[in-house]
Amino acid sequence: MLLEIDPGLMIWTIITFFVLLVVLRLVVWKPLLAMLDERERRIRDALSGAERARHEAERTLVEYKETLSKTEVEARERIQRATEQAHQERERIVSESHHQANRLVEDAKAEIQHEKERAIQELRQTVGDLAIQAASKLLDENLDNARNRKIVDDFIRKLPGTSKN
């Protein structure tokens, strides 16, 4: 028995595919991008806050150095103690600022990655559900849900640029 190609079915499959792409673009893509843009904005604001804190720490350090220069009139012993204290405070402030900025950057990167993975998973789920519904209506027969999900997951894994584990 030879496998026959039904041109009508092929044309309807192509039409359904493009209709599905248009529906996905109109319904899913914009809200997903809006959500990602909002998340990026909040992370950018957090990074900006960390940068302001670092500038404030540097400004405080500059003010402290100016105060230290005014006290040079005092005795050398007192200047030496103040210089040592200023150095320790400077190191602590700079160290804390760097640690805080690095922590915020790492947290932001991890959150971006997590949100990206979650958004991709949601998109795959939605695409899969829509594809199953469309295919089910088109073929007028429905395989069981587990079989549908496996077919869609296999299809999504084979799409270029996806890396589902």
How would a crystallographer describe the biggest sheet?
A: none
In which range does the helix fraction lie? Answer: over 70%
> What is the overall silhouette?
rod-shaped
Strand content: under 5%
Task: Summarize model confidence as the mean pLDDT.
Answer: 83
User: Whole-Å distance between the termini?
Assistant: 38 Å
Structural class: mainly alpha
Number of separate structural domains: 1
Provide the gyration radius in Å.
30 Å
Please count the beta strands (DSSP E, at least 2 residues each).
Answer: 0
Low-confidence stretches: none
- DSSP helical segment count: 3
Order of helices and strands: HHH
Descriptive tags:
rod-shaped
Structure description:
The protein has 3 helices and no strands. It has 165 residues and is mostly helical. Helix 2 packs across helix 3 (145-158). The mean pLDDT is 83.
